[in-house]
Amino acid sequence: MTSADARPAALTRKPTWLISEVSRVAHRLLTDKLATAGSRGYDYRLLAALQEFGPTSQASLGRHTGMDRSDVVASVNELAGRGLVDRSPDPADHRRNVITITPDGAAHLRRLEELLADVQDELAAPLSPASSWEPCSACYEAKPKATP
Fold first, then answer.
1. Could you tell me if 44 and 34 are in contact, meaning their C-beta atoms sit under 8 angstroms apart?
2. Phi, psi of 101 (to 5 degrees)
3. Is residue 80 part of a domain?
4. Looking at residue 96, which CATH number applies to its domain?
5. Rounded Cα gap, residues 111 and 84, in angstroms
6. For residue 76, which phi and psi values (nearest 5 degrees)?
7. How far apart are CA 13 and CA 18, in angstroms?
8. Pick from 26, 57, 52: nearest CA to 120
9. How confident is the prediction along the chain (148 residues), in pLDDT tens digits per residue?
């Protein structure tokens, strides 16, 4: 980094700034890699939630993934159009839909998992071999609970 690109030391010593910078780099890597499979982060979130939790409502998907209801609807519409999820009326309440991952959706999720493994490797490459993601996991678990 040249002196023209240097960041103030007061800034670079702040965990909040460092975390924001890592987040920015991670988001760019993730977005670029998922785009190679014609997907977005929302696609991965929804498919992963359906794989883990099974068929569920759009509202429940929003809660599981931290996505806004309108983003869930738009993403489910797109995934359904690609045959990656199936949307059917809930037999217990016909006012809502149940979303289910399809076999093609499960295969696509496996492909996204491979791409995400590449992103994790690229993001972690600058860390020393002795480093691990444990502190990051601990920070996530200890994070203050956000209120909507």
1. yes
2. -75, 140
3. yes
4. 1.10.10.10
5. 13
6. -60, -40
7. 8
8. 26
9. 567 778 888 887 888 888 888 889 889 999 999 999 999 999 999 999 999 999 999 999 999 999 999 999 999 999 999 999 999 998 888 888 999 999 999 999 999 999 999 998 888 877 655 555 566 656 656 666 655 4
What domain range is 62 assigned to? 39-116
Counting the structural domains of the chain, the total is 1
Q: Which residue has the tokens 């609970």?
A: 145
Distance separating alpha carbons of residues 132 and 135, to the nearest angstrom: 7
Read off φ and ψ for residue 118, nearest 5 degrees.
-65, -40
133 belongs to a structural domain: no
Count of beta carbons in the 10 Å neighbourhood of residue 96: 13
Phi, psi of 99, rounded to the nearest 5 degrees: -105, 135
Asked if residue 64 belongs to a domain, the reply is yes
Within a domain: 93:
yes
Give yes or no for a contact between 89 and 98, defined as CB atoms under 8 angstroms apart. Answer: yes
- What size, in residues, is the chain? 148
